[in-house]
């Protein structure tokens, strides 16, 4: 054997080709194969031998050609067997590649088939010989013709058949990567490439997870040839499916107790991370791939998934794509939230479409997944979080003012998006150490730099970060300290939020606390008022939150502690002497504020009570401060009136008069602190008898002295007349003069002092009749002054009087309401009758309660003690709800109003207003506690106690329904419109708590429909409220188009036709629609039409994007010819009913003005949406060549026969109304000629703009109908009639009438003048005559 090998090599080297051929012919095929195999295994001269065999086998002879084929057929499996050394196999394949082009066509075909068969049976495991396959295929495609079956094929076609056969056969998972690599070297047509890519993507699921990243890499290299979108979509959809199945497994793992996960989560995440890196690397090198990637997400966010979000964020690190990616994600998030809101608000859309895919959830999933080492994603997440918070954060109000008090719930899509940004950053901060510093720095930078716009969202985020990771934050305490340096320049709200947020840190970090105190001391002497206010805020917060101050032991500092542990650490005593000294030092700093502006003093008075409650050790110091301040303004001479000095409370600067000392707030603070301390002492005495005598004596000393002062003030304030304060009826109160301003300040201070003394005396009275009589005296004085103020300030053209905020505390108002209406204790009866008999006092109490609730609704807190404490505030709300509800339901307003014909609201009306505000506040501020609020209201004996939340809510709905029914069952004379409107508003608020799927909701809607059908009161404000309630309920129950049609028929029937000769058929589905309320109803119907059009427009846009995706994806029609898509069917039916309703409205003689313009606008919008629908069908016809649905043809016919002709008639009517009905009468014209001209021209401009818009949209609709007719081969224009409405019109009858009305003398003189002129002319020898 060795000799044969040597002989071949020798003859080859000698260049004697003839002898070599002769020698090779003498060796049998089997022998030759054995020689090659042995040589290859021993790795001796095998390359040279094969070269010699090929040299001695010329292609032009059959024998040589067959021998060559034999060598190839043997060497390929030999290399693949794995028995050879790698370099030997590589040499053999290299040799064979060089000689492939010399093979004949049939030999190449046989070789190619050999490869295909080997792949099919899985013999290409190592993939070494696959390097030869591309060369074979390339050579094959160069052949002119090859026999195939019974016929012949060109080489190119033959190659195509081979690839097709290869891609449709089974591949061994082991050789998928080798094959993908191999196809990179094969010249492929786009169709062949598509076959290959589809096959490789199908193989993904057969492969082990670890093999996915290299395959992704090879696929991306292959995508350089084309099919970029297909490759990316395939990779993303594979990971999307893996994520879903992994999620499903996690859900069921608890119930099934699965021992082994089929997809380990960490492994999947690491594979995803590697795949993302490969894709981003490929996009960096191939910008076409990047463009394709972004393009696929621009049309619809439905294709997004956590993997593609992570991929987008990684791509954002490439500078040229950064802006595009964030814009794309921003658009997807906001659109997702808007779509969700639209779907939640409409039962029609909920029934039509399946569940909503939430982009926000995907982004939060991406944050969670990024914990598995996705460092390339985290930077993008930080950028995205801040991008969303910056773009969608709260905006400054008018004049740069920020809206006070942020609501707790994110309601609008923009608020939800901003909240999502915060969640991304918070989760990122918790999970990834490297980005913590950057997040913290950026948040603090924004707090300092964004002075002009609200930063409440950043404060919330910062606060959450502090609570979730206080010890991590301490590592970056230098950044927080830097922020403190800017405190005196920041807005007060920002300072308050920032200091509240860092509170837990101050308790563990002495250095941070010291830095803050230094800054606050500096701020105390700031030239800016806001800076000084910030200092007061900071010091008060320190006093409130540090019961005992002291350093935490270092061993505790080293432990990671949660905020709950911080609380525990701080409340244990460390060094009380040092702490007390520290607190007293802060108090001495605060005392300096008592010489500053009223605003600063006010903050101090409002904060002292909370400090005292939290830190009672400071009682004597605080009380002495207040006491000494109060004595400055107290008149000690008992015989002198009034008991307070008002002069020092004001200061003048030039002509301006300012408040210097908010005296009433000072007295309030003193009273509340005193009362709280007395309560404390009472409870302490009952608990323990022995205590420190010295302290107690000192405290009792100033307490009794303060009590004496307050008693004296009460007595003398009752005796004081208004003249004593220089505030009698003759005093001036206009805000234009300094005297008027001074008197106003005095009046407000005196009224405040009266209120504080009323509260103090009520608590001290302990239900004594004589003390209550004194209280009434105080009230009468207060009321008298209040009436003078109202009367004087309300005299001008515009009433400048705004009731000053009451100084009664919320707790006291709540107690007062309860004793006035619900207290039936026998022993108190006599004393309480003093209060109850004074109607003005009862009314005042209820109106103060309403004022307090309103303040809570707007700002989230109230003035006075406990105003900032949400739990106590909520408890007071519950108490007031119970009392107001009882008062309203148990004392009918008819009884109360008998004999009173006053302008102002009745008590029942005030109670209702209070209830409405409480329910609204509760929904906004305490959304989870609505049931708790309702459950505190007492149920009357004859009603059973409701079982669950919905029942409880519905029980109160029924109470208010009864009240409204009682209102409506009386005659129209007894009907109280304002009260009825409030009842409807309350029902609207309470009905929001009902689940639309519950039977109570159906009962509610049935009742509302019944009321609307049966009530015929001519009150437009009430009907507006009731119809709004009906629409809001109806849209959550089913589509409102049927309801709109019925209402439109009613409106047409009530207002009559635009053609006065037409008799409208009398219809009355809803009695609430009558002559007086029809215009209001029409405007409401049109607003609902707009809402329905929004939904239809959204559905069409959704279908269009689906059609575009299908077209680019499969290209197959999505539905069978006979069956219409449910969304298309729903859209057509909605529009059909809407057109019928609009047909009724455009024949209605609507009043010129808002109603007409709104109708014209809605018609314009309807035609625009019809045009969009037509464009959609043009798109469908272009891609699918299907027939148009019969329903759509009917819709087009309806628009042509019912709507367009009527539109043109309505335009004529609107224009005639504009000139005839639009003017004012003659007297007004003379009075305000200029104003009327301006108003008339503006009105004309508005109306004339609405008409051309409508005509344009009709013509656009018809234009696209012509296009659709051509595409679909259906003549849709047969239903459209050519309009003459836009032609030049002369209405002969109108012209005659106008001529007849002219004055005869004018007419005659004009005619004689013209006759004279014409007779003098030689050109026109004619005369005018009038018939």
Automatic annotation (TrEMBL):
It holds the Pfam family FANCI_S1. GO terms for molecular function: DNA polymerase binding. Residues 685-704 are annotated as: Disordered. Residues 689-702 have a biased composition (Acidic residues). InterPro entries: FANCI, FANCI_HD1, FANCI_HD2, FANCI_S1, FANCI_S1-cap, FANCI_S2, FANCI_S3, FANCI_S4. Signal peptide: none annotated. Residues 5-56 form the FANCI solenoid 1 cap domain. One of its GO terms (biological process) is DNA repair. Residues 288-369, 554-790 form the FANCI helical domain. Transmembrane segments: none annotated. Residues 66-283, 377-540, 807-1030, 1044-1296 form the FANCI solenoid domain. It comes from the Eukaryota. PANTHER family: BC025462 PROTEIN (PTHR21818), FANCONI ANEMIA GROUP I PROTEIN (PTHR21818:SF0). This is Fanconi anemia group I protein. It comes from Larimichthys crocea.
């Amino acid at each position: 054997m060795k000799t044969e090998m040597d002989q071949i090599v020798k003859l080859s080297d000698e260049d004697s080709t003839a002898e070599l051929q002769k020698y090779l012919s003498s060796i049998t095929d089997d022998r030759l194969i054995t020689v090659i195999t042995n040589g290859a295994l021993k790795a001796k001269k095998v390359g040279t031998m094969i070269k010699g065999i090929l040299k001695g086998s010329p292609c032009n002879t059959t024998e040589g050609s067959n021998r060559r084929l034999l060598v190839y057929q043997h060497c390929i499996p030999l290399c693949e067997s794995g028995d050879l050394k790698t370099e030997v196999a590589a040499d053999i394949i290299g040799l064979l590649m060089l000689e492939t082009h010399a093979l004949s066509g049939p030999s190449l075909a046989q070789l190619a088939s050999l490869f295909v068969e080997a792949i099919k049976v899985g013999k290409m495991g190592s993939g070494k010989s696959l390097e030869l396959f591309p060369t074979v295929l390339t050579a094959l495609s160069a052949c002119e013709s090859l026999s195939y079956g019974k016929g012949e094929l060109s080489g190119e076609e033959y190659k195509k058949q081979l690839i097709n056969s290869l891609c449709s056969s089974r591949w061994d998972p082991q050789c998928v990567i080798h094959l993908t690599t191999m196809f990179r070297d094969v010249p492929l047509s786009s169709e062949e490439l598509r076959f290959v890519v589809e096959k490789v993507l199908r193989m993904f699921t057969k492969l082990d997870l670890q093999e996915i990243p290299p395959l992704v890499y090879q696929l991306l290299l292959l995508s350089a040839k084309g099919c970029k979108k297909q490759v990316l979509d395939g990779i993303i959809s594979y990971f999307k499916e893996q994520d879903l199945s992994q999620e499903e497994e996690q859900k069921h793992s608890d119930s099934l107790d699965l021992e082994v996960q089929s997809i380990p989560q960490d492994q999947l995440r690491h594979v995803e991370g590697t795949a993302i890196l490969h894709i981003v690397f490929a996009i960096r090198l191939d910008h076409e791939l990047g463009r394709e990637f972004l393009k696929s997400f621009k049309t619809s966010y439905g294709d997004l998934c956590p993997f593609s979000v992570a991929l987008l964020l990684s791509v954002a690190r490439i500078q040229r794509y950064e802006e595009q990616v964030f814009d794309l994600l921003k658009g997807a998030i906001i659109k997702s939230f808007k779509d969700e809101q639209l779907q939640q608000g409409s039962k029609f859309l909920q029934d039509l479409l399946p569940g909503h895919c939430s982009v926000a959830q995907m982004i939060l999933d991406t944050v969670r997944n990024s914990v598995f080492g996705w460092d390339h994603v985290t930077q993008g997440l930080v950028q995205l979080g801040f991008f969303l918070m910056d773009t969608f954060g709260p905006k400054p109000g008018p004049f740069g003012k920020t809206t006070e008090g942020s609501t707790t719930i994110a309601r609008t899509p923009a608020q939800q998006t901003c909240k999502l940004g915060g969640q991304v950053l918070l989760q990122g901060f918790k999970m990834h150490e490297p980005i913590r510093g950057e997040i913290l720095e950026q948040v603090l930078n924004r707090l300092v730099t964004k002075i002009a716009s609200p930063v409440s969202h950043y404060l919330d985020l910062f606060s959450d970060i502090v609570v979730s990771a206080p010890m991590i934050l301490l590592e970056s305490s230098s950044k927080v300290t830097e922020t403190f340096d800017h405190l005196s320049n920041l807005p007060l709200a920002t300072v308050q939020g920032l200091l509240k947020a860092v509170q837990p840190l101050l308790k563990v970090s002495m250095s941070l606390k010291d830095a803050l105190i230094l800054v606050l001391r500096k701020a105390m002497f700031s030239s800016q008022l806001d800076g000084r206010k910030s200092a007061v805020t900071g010091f008060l917060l320190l006093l409130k939150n540090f019961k005992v101050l002291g350093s935490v032991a270092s061993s505790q500092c080293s432990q990671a502690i949660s905020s709950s542990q911080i609380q525990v650490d701080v409340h244990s005593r460390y060094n009380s002497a040092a702490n007390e000294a520290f607190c007293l030092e802060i108090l001495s700093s605060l005392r300096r504020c008592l010489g500053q502006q009223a605003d600063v003093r006010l903050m101090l008075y409002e904060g002292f009570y909370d400090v005292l409650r939290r830190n009672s050790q400071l009682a004597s110091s605080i009380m002495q401060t207040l006491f000494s301040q109060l004595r400055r303004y107290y008149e000690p001479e008992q015989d002198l009136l009034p008991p307070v000095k008002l002069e020092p409370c004001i200061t003048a600067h030039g002509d301006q008069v300012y408040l210097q000392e908010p005296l009433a707030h000072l007295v309030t603070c003193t009273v509340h602190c005193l009362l709280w301390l007395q309560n404390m002492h009472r409870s302490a005495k009952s608990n323990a008898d022995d205590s420190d005598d010295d302290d107690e004596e000192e405290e009792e000393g100033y307490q009794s002295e303060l009590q004496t002062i307050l008693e004296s003030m009460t007595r003398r304030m009752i005796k004081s007349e208004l003249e004593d304060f220089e505030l009698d009826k003759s005093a001036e109160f206009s805000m234009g003069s300094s005297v008027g301003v001074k008197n106003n300040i005095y009046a407000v201070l005196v009224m405040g002092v009266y209120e504080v003394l009323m509260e103090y005396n009520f608590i001290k009275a302990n239900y004594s009749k004589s003390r209550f009589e004194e209280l009434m005296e105080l009230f009468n004085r207060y009321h008298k002054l209040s009436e003078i103020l109202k009367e004087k300030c309300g005299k001008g053209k515009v009433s400048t009087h705004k009731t000053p905020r009451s100084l009664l505390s919320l707790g006291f108002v709540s107690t007062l309401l309860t004793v006035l209406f619900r207290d039936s204790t026998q022993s108190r009866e006599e004393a309480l009758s003093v209060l109850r008999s004074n109607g003005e006092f009862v009314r005042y109490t209820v109106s103060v309660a309403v004022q307090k609730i309103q303040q809570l609704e707007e700002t989230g807190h109230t003035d006075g003690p406990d105003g900032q404490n949400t739990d106590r505030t909520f408890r007071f709300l519950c108490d007031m709800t119970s009392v107001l509800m009882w008062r309203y339901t148990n004392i009918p307003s008819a009884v109360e109003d008998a004999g009173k014909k006053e302008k102002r609201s009745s008590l029942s009306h005030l109670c209702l207003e209070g209830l409405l505000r409480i329910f609204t506040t509760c929904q906004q501020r305490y959304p989870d506690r609505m049931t708790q609020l309702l459950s505190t209201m007492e149920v009357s004996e004859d009603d059973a106690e409701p079982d669950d939340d919905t029942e409880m809510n519905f029980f109160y709905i029924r109470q208010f329904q009864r009240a409204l029914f009682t209102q409506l069952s009386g005659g129209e004379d007894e009907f109280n419109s304002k009260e009825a409107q409030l009842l409807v508003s309350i029902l609207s608020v309470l009905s929001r708590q009902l689940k639309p799927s519950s039977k109570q909701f159906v009962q509610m809607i049935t009742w509302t429909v019944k009321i609307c059908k049966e009530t015929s009161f001519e009150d437009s404000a009430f009907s507006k409220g009731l119809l709004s309630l009906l629409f809001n309920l109806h849209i959550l129950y089913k589509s409102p188009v049927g309801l709109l049609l019925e209402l439109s028929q009613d409106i047409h029937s009530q207002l009559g036709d635009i053609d006065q000769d037409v008799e409208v058929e009398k219809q009355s589905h809803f009695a609430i629609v009558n002559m007086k309320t029809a215009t209001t109803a029409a405007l409401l119907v049109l607003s609902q039409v707009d809402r329905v059009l929004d939904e239809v427009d959204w559905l069409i846009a959704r279908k269009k994007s689906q059609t575009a995706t299908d077209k680019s994806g499969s290209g197959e029609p999505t539905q069978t010819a006979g069956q219409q898509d449910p969304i298309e069917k729903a859209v057509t039916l909605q529009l059909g009913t809407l057109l019928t309703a609009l047909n009724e409205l455009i024949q209605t003689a609507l009043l010129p003005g808002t109603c007409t313009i709104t109708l014209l606008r809605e018609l314009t919008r309807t035609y625009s949406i019809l045009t969009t629908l037509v464009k959609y069908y043009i798109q469908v016809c272009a891609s699918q060549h299907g027939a148009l649905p019969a329903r759509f043809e009917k819709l087009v016919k309806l628009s042509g026969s019912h709507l367009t002709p009527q539109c043109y008639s309505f335009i004529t009517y609107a224009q005639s109304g504009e000139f005839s009905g639009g003017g004012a009468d003659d007297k007004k014209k003379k009075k305000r000629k200029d104003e009327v001209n301006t108003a008339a021209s503006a009105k004309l401009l508005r109306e004339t703009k609405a008409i051309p818009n409508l005509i344009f949209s009709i013509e656009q609709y018809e234009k696209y109908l012509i296009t659709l007719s051509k595409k679909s081969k259906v003549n849709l224009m047969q239903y459209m009639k050519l309009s003459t409405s836009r032609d030049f019109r002369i209405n002969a009858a109108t012209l005659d009438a106008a001529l007849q009305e002219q004055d005869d003398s004018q007419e005659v003189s004009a005619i004689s003048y013209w006759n004279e002129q014409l007779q003098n002319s030689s050109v026109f020898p004619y005369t005018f005559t009038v018939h």
